[in-house]
Amino acid sequence: MSSHISAENLSAYKDRALPPADLRQIAQHVSACASCRQQLEELQQVSLRLRQQPAYPVPPFFAVRLFNKIKMRQQRSVFVDFVWLSRRLMPALALLAAIMVAWHSFSSPELPPEEEDYLAAVGASPAMSLLAGNNEEMTKEEVLEFVVLAASTQD
Amino acid sequence: MLADISTTHATTAADFELIQAFNEGQEAAFTRLVQKYQQHVFNLIFHHSGPRVEVEDLAQEVFLKVYTHLKNFKGQASFRTWLYRITLNVCIDHGRKRKLRRMLSLEGLSEWGKAKLSLRHSTSASPHSDAEKREWQDRLQQALAQLPEEFRQPLVLRDMEDLDYDEIAAITGAPLGTVKSRIFRGRRHLRELLAPYWEKGS
Question: Residue B190 belongs to what domain range?
Answer without folding.
Answer: 111-196
